[in-house]
Amino acid sequence: MKNLLLSTICLAAIASCSSAKKESVQAKQPNIVVIYLDDLGYGDVSAYGATEIKTPNMDALANGGVRFTNGYATSATCTPSRYGLLTGVYPWRNEDAKILPGTAPLIIDTAQVTIPKMLKKKGYQTAVVGKWHLGLGTGDTDWNTHVTPGPNEIGFDYAYILAATQDRVPTVYIDNGYVDNLDPNDPIEVSYKHNFEGEPTGKDNPELTTMKWHHGHNNSIVNGIPRIGFMKGGQSAKWSDVDMADHFLDKAKNWVKAHKDEPFFLYYALQQPHVPRTPNPRFVGSSGMGPRGDAILEADWCIGEFIKTLDEEGLLENTLIVFSSDNGPVLNDGYYDDAVEKLGKHRPTGPLRGGKYSLFEAGTRVPFVTYWKGKIEPKVSDALVCQMDLLASIAKLVGVEENTTDSQDLLDVLMGKSDEGRDALILEATSRTALRKGDWIMIPPYKGESIKELVNIELGNAEEYQLYNLKEDIGQQQNQAESKPEKLKEMLETFKTLRGEEFSDIQQLDLK
């Protein structure tokens, strides 16, 4: 009896030590969550100065963590920014990293380093929930079988996604490579070149639409909304647009609950406020700005509900949260939805010039926040940081050595312990690039239209060099290229060095 008692005590002690050791290991391996919005502007968040709209849950992160005033996506459009975030590589190094159709092949090489692949080396469970838009398959996709390669092949254990964007076909969810809820007797066909016989389109059948297209969105109609591209079949698998935010939120919450006892990485990519803006009926009219404003409030609510789940599961104090957007804002991006008419005094760009598609600041400077309850002290930082730097910084956080191409270790900056951010950053907008260095930005001459008239956004194109001091002129109204020739020369040399051979023969300046 005595020996049995001693054995029981020993076993209990071993179990206790094992449990303590497990908890200790987990404490050293924080959970990491990236909350990524789609087309959310610098001025769309009240913590960043918005006065006509209130975003309390985004604000709670921004005011409780490090709110960066010089935080950038790599690009002014979605696909390249997502590529840069996950790979730590400038998207202009990959000629395929541009806005993709829904049928595009995967543009991340399966041998390439990615954040989820890197974290798996440390035993992390990894997941992506929401918008993907980085390509799937090899270019000749059969949506009725296993679609591969995709997120699973570049490091995600779990992937519940929409293939491209909400306004592009196929309008179905992909669950770990398989179309969710697909009826094999009603196979899917997708084309971006030709319509399928007998299928209505927004262009030819406007009477079947509940949302009017403005430009480019006049192909297959799904749920009354005309899309980009043509699709046939898959009726049972088609998503409900107004329920999309709730659907992704439930998937994200449930995955976290299922993996709360092990270190995890979640890339939670919300679709709001990208077009078509289809907020759930309970949010309709909540902003007074039409569907775009309503979608922002819906996204804010989703973030609040997700953070509440982390809190309820006891995970907030061991979770680093990064909150940002893939590029700047756009109002009319293909549909008539009152985004322009009901804007009022709201400025989605804040004090910045440009917007989505633009080399001006509003194209790439976005809300950028790091939050970690009990670990990060609230502060506002002017340090220059980029989403591309998450890979190297997270590698440092979890103790993984990675050879990174462009990503820089800014962990101390992201944790609020340093204000020494990047020295320089190449910014990109639809294959055009510019240089941000210190307080200055230099935009080389580019031919082409200066304003993207369909969306009424200044692209940043000009026949001459542009040079702005963003500290003194955040709205980029005073071009100092002629008055500051030495500064322009310095910027140009840095630009050439970072951009490489492609720009080695850029026009020489007459600095006499």
CATH class of the largest domain: Alpha Beta
Shape: globular
Strand content: 15-25%
Provide the structure class: alpha/beta
Level-2 CATH architecture of the largest domain: 3-Layer(aba) Sandwich
CATH superfamily of the largest domain: Alkaline Phosphatase, subunit A
Topology order in helix (H) and strand (E) letters: HEHEHHEEEEEEEEHEHEEEHHEEEEEEH
Structure notes:
There is one protein chain. Helix content is 23%, strand content 18%. By secondary structure, it is of the alpha/beta class. The chain folds into three domains: 28-188 and 236-420, 3-Layer(aba) Sandwich (Alkaline Phosphatase, subunit A), CATH 3.40.720.10; 191-232, no CATH class; 426-503, Arylsulfatase, C-terminal domain, CATH 3.30.1120.10. It has a ten-stranded mixed β-sheet. Strand 5 (173-175) and strand 6 form a beta hairpin. The longest helix has 27 residues, at 2-28. The chain is globular and about 65 Å long. 52% of the residues are buried.
